[in-house]
Amino acid sequence: MPLLRRRDLLQRSASALLTAALTLTGLPSLAQAQTSSGGHPGIELTQLSTERGDDGLLLSYTVRLELSKDVEDALYKGVAVVFVAEAELFKSRWYWYDKPKVRIVRRWRLAYQPLTRHWRLSFDGLSRSYNSLNEALGVMRRSSQWRISDNVSGEDDHYVVFSFRLDTDELPRPMQIGLGGQNDWNLAVQRRIAVTQGR
C-alpha cells in the first residue's frame, strides 16, 4: 500500500475514533466546538431525551441548524437538499456485541420555488409550502414524542443512537464530486442516550 494512502487511512481512523470517544463521553464534537466558538454556520444537538409512554418508546430532540452560504446559494439555484433524522435502538449485552433492535428514519426534502418564492418541504409523501427558509427549517429542527419502538423491557439496559444530517448522497452527482473537503456541506451530529427507566 502506498505510504500516502496508508497515512491518509490512519488519519481518518484516528479522527473516527476521536469522534466516537467524544460521542460516548457526551462531549461536543469538533464541528460543534467550532460552531459554539463563533465559527461558520453548522449544526448542534441542543436537546435529546427518551421516555416510555403508553404508545411505546418516545424520543424528543431539538437541533440548532444554520445553513452555510454555499448551501443556501445551491437552494436558491434550484438544488433540492435532503435532511435525515435517524434513531437506532440497541440492547446492551456484556457478553457480546450490543444487539440492534429497531432503526427508524425520517427524511425531509427541501426545495426553493423561484416562481412562487416559496419553500417546499416534503416529508412522508406529503408536501407543504412555507414563506421563508427559517420556517421550513423550523419544522425539522425539533420533534416531540417521536415513537421509535414499542415499549422495551425495563429489566434490560437499552440505549438509542440518534443522528441528524444533511444527506449529500442525494445531491446531483456533479455536486457530490466537487464537495470533497468542504466543511460547509458537512452538517451532521450524532449522540448516544440511555433509555430512561420507567414504565
Structure description:
The chain has 199 residues and is of the alpha+beta class. It folds into two domains: 1-39, no CATH class; 41-194, no CATH class. The protein has five helices and nine strands; from the N terminus they run ααββαββββαββαβ. Strands 6-5-4-3-8-9 form a six-stranded antiparallel β-sheet, covered by helices on one side. A three-stranded antiparallel β-sheet has the order 1-2-7. The longest helix has 23 residues, at 3-25. 15% of the residues are buried.
Number of strands: 9
Largest sheet data: 6 strands, antiparallel
Which consecutive residue ranges, at least 5 long each, have pLDDT under 50?
1-40
Number of helical runs?
A: 5
* Binned strand content: 35-45%
Strand order of the largest sheet: 6-5-4-3-8-9
The dominant shape is elongated
Structural class: alpha+beta
Helix content: 25-40%
The H-and-E topology, N to C, reads as HHEEHEEEEHEEHE
CA(first)-CA(last) distance: 54 Å
Q: How many domains is the backbone divided into?
A: 2
Roughly what is the average pLDDT, rounded to an integer?
78
How would the blueprint of this fold be written?
Blueprint: H1 3-25, H2 30-36, E1 43-53, E2 56-65, H3 69-76, E3 81-91, E4 99-113, E5 118-123, E6 126-130, H4 133-141, E7 142-149, E8 158-166, H5 173-177, E9 188-194
Antiparallel strand pairs: 1-2, 2-7, 3-4, 3-8, 4-5, 5-6, 8-9
Summarize the structure.
By secondary structure, the chain is an alpha+beta fold.
Please name the defining characteristics of this protein.
199 residues; alpha+beta; six-stranded antiparallel β-sheet; three-stranded antiparallel β-sheet; 9 strands; 41% strand
